User: Fold this.
Amino acid sequence: MTGSRRLNVVVGISGGIAAYKAVNVVRALVLEGHDVHVIATDAALRFVGKPTLEAISRNPVNSDLYEGVAQVRHVSIGQAADLIVIAPATANTLAKLAHGLADDLLGNTVLASTAPIVVAPAMHTEMWGNPATRANVALLRTRGITIVGPASGRLTGEDVGAGRMSEPDDIVRAALAAVDGAGADSAAVPAASTPGAPDADVTAPSSGDLAGFRVLISAGGTREPLDPVRFLGNRSSGRQGVALAAAAFERGASVTLLAAHLEVPVPEGVAVVHVQTAAELEEAARDHAQRSDLVIMAAAVADYRPAGVAEQKIKKETAGDRVTLELVRNPDILATIAAERRDGRVVVGFAAETAADEDELVRVGRAKLERKGCDYLVLNRVGWSLGFAAEDNAVVVVQRGGDIVMEASGSKATVAHRILDAVHPALLPRA
Ligand code: CTP
Assistant:
């Protein structure tokens, strides 16, 4: 147990404004009795001074790859480490770690080490949501590296969003847990794939502003069968819902995804329940919503289903030249979940509208929010060449009462984080 063992801890600090908070990471580790060796990149030393880090760590600070060459320091520091903590990890550092670059002392140390590695990213929301960063983080997770945070909140400038470095105490706790073999990041847990998967299969990192929250997200588009080979469907790819699931998981939530014919893979760490039709989605959603703090209905649900499903394939010879389909209304799942919610559960709907402009979009959205009775409605404009299967999205979020609380555009990952930022204030605080 780390509680009784003095660890040799390397704290890597890279060049972001959060480097000043890394001083408290070093301090907390020293106060816990560990031997702490700081490796600061050149950029980190522009944000925080070497004397500060040396005084707090009680050891010389290493930054230059070409100092102490006789002691082969570029490998010896990593070989001696019991634990490596990198805080803050900038987008650039994450990219270098993901690709095994060794153009500085920190990169060499990481490559030369077999110790657990714990990384606390810090950057602006757009950089965190960028597909390159997302891919790098996913790659690091597959190698068993623990990712702590980032949290959401005030960033360097006036902006607010995901990307803030986690609090030093949270980083230290996750780092020491990683040595004990109980890493804070559980992305390695396989996604459950059977309908009605028990919630015990759902796991989450213990850090992040959604830690302790259970989030249910529907994504994709339902299909309503006509006969054994045909269905009525829609053009939803599920990308935005999947991006929301990934974002919620990264922020510490236990996430269950109700997946209706997704065109994109399910993110790691997220439990998945596959559904086909609106009826199946309704059953799964109502069941899982009971155990959820936040429900986001991003799936495109068929409003109507064929009145009857043919047992055999419909044949032209019997159907003739003109066929009339009789359709019946499907239940409104979002409205049902909103009506059944209690105990502070937050319910969010989506509405893709073919509005002429943003004013019309918001007008239609306000009326729909009122009708559905949900807490927030995420609106976007769609058309023949707008919205579906695109990599980017542009949304407006309205809340109960009709106020616009957020407008965002960018990658679906960026938009996902902004949506979570917008609805987060409505969640009851966790103990
Ligand atoms: N939705 C649902 N159940 C349905 C239809 C829609 O839960 N039967 C949810 C969607 O998941 C989405 C929201 O309701 O979160 C809005 O979907 P939309 O299709 O825009 O709503 P409709 O009520 O079908 O409105 P419209 O008549 O404009 O199509």
Remarks:
- DSSP finds 15 helices and 19 strands in the chain.
- The first helix runs from residue 19 to 31.
